[in-house]
Design a protein that fits this description.
It contains 29 helices and no strands. With about 700 residues, the protein is mostly helical. The protein folds into three domains: about 5-170 and about 370-510, no CATH class; about 170-220 and about 225-330, no CATH class; about 515-695. The two termini are about 40 Å apart.
């Protein structure tokens, strides 16, 4: 993609306004937190203190709207603590520009590295840099610095208290994540009726798993309706695919295929009903027609062999998911060992070593996070020096804009930079126009600023352009509380916002970290994790008595994570103004299709595991051993652009077929697996195409 095309795409994306589901009560609660802080400090303090401390309530409320599965009060308190510390240190260093710029460089570097922990941590750290820039205007004493820090913390405490005192749809995000996963499987079942090899996006299941991770205190109050369906949904997906598959399931045409379509449609209806029940906290409602479809026909079985086994397992799992979700919604303490088992989310103190390991892992020059931290630190310092040198006042707006728009990847940085300036332009002119027409007083300005915050919280997910417009108007009215002229605010705000955005975008252009050059590494990681998942399943077919479901489960989760990283990297690379380096778009798409097929075939083998007392298969074990030896070489070949060689696994599969025939599920699935691996080799090494086709014909 050329630079002109990349800029057009990022500008279009940055100015896009999305239609999203609104949460008005949550927005009102967050705006009330800001109103309480401003009102208290206007009544008992001064306008200047009200303006500076309002940022604590505003930023704490902002963090509670982020996509995190931790309790909202914890997020508000974490932001309040970070804002208080950064404000205190900033005031102490504000007596000298050199000292303050040094502190700003170190603090911004650490804030940039916080993205290694996660996007929510990165956002919270970014807010601490912003408050250091906004609230620090004049030097003060140590006691004064502690007072200002305490006032910032007060805003976060107010937001946390409101969340505790006025809970709105508790466990709502967890309910939505689980319901979305079930609805995604319902959609998958419907697509399988018409396309037996339809792909499935595992993202909803991954989100549901993250939502199910609990701290011990959360585990004591989680509704029972959220405790069981996710695990059943995980087991449902391979069964749906096994029933629909034309090779390992129902035949492509005929009465058995018609029966499979009926079962898939009924499964979709059940999953949709369970999703609605979980989302709303109500009992499951199923139609008589659906229940009749999920019974064995009176005139005898209409499915045979592997398809019949899949159908019976599907009926049992659907009954389990309905039973697991059709429970009382009231919170209950787990009483039995089975109920006490849950995915553990580390508490905040236990998260410290995890965060330190993440920071240590990304503290290298080749890391996108590490380079982002260096880049944002340099831009913030340069913006602060230039902004304070200009005769505009409020010079901190330039570095604050840079810090708020900069992200570790190209597309988001440029989208946010364009949206920030355009949104600010709209917001300050709307706020300035209202100020010209109404000449609001101090308390009216306070009310209008709270209104802008409420609109911001309400329209948070509509796009950064809308968010920037609300912030622009909010700043106009907030500074109006202390008597700032709107015309001066507009001029300063626009000029310095433009400067900060240009500095951010120029920094990424001059010091980039392109995702395009790393695509082969991401593809190699995906092949490695998918291969580990395949080997774990093949081991169960080779030695049924040595069943270790946990190993298969962990390999599947690693495979999903690698696929997600690939998807995100490919999406980012597609927006970068960089010529392809190492892999073309056609090879990228073909490789992706081959690895998706490899994962789907492995999932089908997992759905047809032999009984624990079945005889071991030496031929299957030999095939798995050969594949295990070939995979590391193939992964390295993907990374360094060499030819992939699957000749030895193909020979081992041929020997397996000669010994046991082609009727076994594992043998047929392994044939599909080898076809997928050879298609991967063809995609990455075009010279192998004719050779592999000749082998298959032979």
């Amino acid at each position: 993609m050329t630079w002109s095309s990349a800029l057009k795409d990022t500008a279009r994306a940055g100015l896009t306004v999305e239609r999203t589901t609104l949460e008005p009560l949550v927005a009102v609660r967050g705006a009330c937190g800001v109103a309480i802080v401003i009102g208290v400090l206007l009544g008992f303090g001064s306008p200047a203190l009200a303006v500076s401390s309002a940022f604590g309530a505003f930023a704490s409320g902002l963090a509670t709207f982020q996509r995190s599965w931790r309790p909202r009060p914890i997020l508000a308190l974490a932001v309040a603590a970070g804002l208080g510390v950064s404000t205190f240190l900033g005031y102490l260093a504000a007596f000298d520009h050199v000292v303050f710029v040094t502190l700003l460089a170190v603090w911004t570097l650490l804030a940039g590295m916080a993205w290694a922990i996660g996007p929510v941590s990165g956002l919270i750290a970014t807010q601490t840099v912003a408050v250091m820039l906004v609230t620090v205007t004049l030097p003060t004493s140590v006691a004064g610095a502690a007072q200002h820090g305490a006032l910032i913390v007060f805003g976060g405490l107010v937001q946390a208290a409101l969340i505790v005192l006025f809970p709105i749809r508790p466990w709502g995000r967890q309910r939505d994540a689980l319901a979305d996963a079930l609805a995604a499987e319902a959609d998958y079942a419907r697509r399988l009726r018409h396309d037996p090899v339809a792909p499935f996006d595992p993202q909803p299941l991954m989100d549901a798993r993250h939502a199910a991770e609990l701290t011990p205190s959360q585990a004591r109050s989680r509704p029972r309706q959220l405790a069981g369906p996710r695990g059943v949904a995980e087991r449902l997906r391979p069964v749906l695919a096994a029933l629909a598959d034309p090779v390992l399931g129902a035949p492509p045409e005929g009465p058995e295929r018609d029966r499979a379509r009926e079962l898939l449609g009924a499964a979709a209806s059940v999953l949709d009903a369970v999703a609605r029940a979980i989302r709303t906290g109500k009992p499951v409602r199923l139609s008589p027609e659906t229940m009749a479809t999920l019974e064995v026909p009176a005139d005898g079985p209409k499915l045979n062999g592997a398809a019949r086994r899949s159908a019976l397992r599907l009926m049992a799992l659907l009954a389990d998911v309905v039973e697991a979700s059709d429970e009382p919604v009231k919170p209950t303490r787990p009483t039995t060992p089975e109920e006490r088992r849950h995915l553990l989310r580390p508490t905040v103190p236990r998260l410290v070593p995890v965060a330190l390991r993440a920071l240590r892992r990304e503290a290298r020059w080749s890391s996108a996070i590490g380079r982002h931290a260096v880049r944002v630190s340099a831009v913030a310092c340069a913006g602060y020096v230039v902004g304070t040198a200009l005769p505009l006042g409020h010079g901190y707006w330039a570095p604050m804009t840079s810090v708020m728009v900069m992200r570790p990847d190209f597309a988001q940085t440029y989208q946010r930079g364009i949206a920030r300036f355009a949104g600010t332009l709209v917001g300050v002119f709307i706020g300035g126009g209202i100020a010209v027409l109404t000449h609001p007083g101090r308390y009216v300005c306070a009310g209008l600023s709270v209104l802008c915050v409420g609109l911001l919280y309400l329209l948070m997910q509509s796009g950064y352009f809308v968010v920037s417009a609300c912030i622009g108007a909010y700043v106009v009215f907030l500074l109006g509380i202390v008597g700032e002229a709107w015309s001066q605010t507009v001029q300063e705000r626009l000029a310095l916002t433009l400067l900060g955005g240009l500095l951010a975008m120029a920094a990424y252009a001059l010091f980039p970290v392109w995702e395009t050059t790393k695509l082969r590494d991401r593809l190699g990681d995906w092949l490695r994790t998918t291969g580990d998942y395949t080997l774990a399943v093949l081991a169960l077919h080779a030695r049924p008595a040595d069943r270790r479901p946990r190993r298969v489960r962990e390999a599947l989760l690693d495979c999903r994570a690698a696929r997600l990283e690939w998807d995100e990297a490919a999406a980012r690379a597609q927006k970068e103004p960089v010529r392809h380096r190492g892999i073309s778009r056609s090879a990228e798409r073909a490789s992706e299709a081959a690895l998706i097929t490899m994962g789907r075939v492995t999932m089908l083998m997992e759905a047809h595991l032999p009984d624990r007392d079945a005889e071991p298969s030496p031929a299957a074990e030999k095939f798995a051993t050969t594949l295990r030896i070939a995979l590391p070489t193939a992964v390295e070949a993907v990374r360094v652009r060499e030819t992939l060689d699957w000749s030895k696994p193909r020979a081992a599969l041929t020997e397996w077929q000669e010994k046991e025939g082609d009727e076994g599920v594992a043998v047929r699935a392994s044939e599909l697996l080898m076809d997928a691996l050879e298609e991967l080799g063809e995609a990455l090494s075009p010279g192998m195409k004719g050779k592999n086709r000749a082998k298959r014909r032979g």
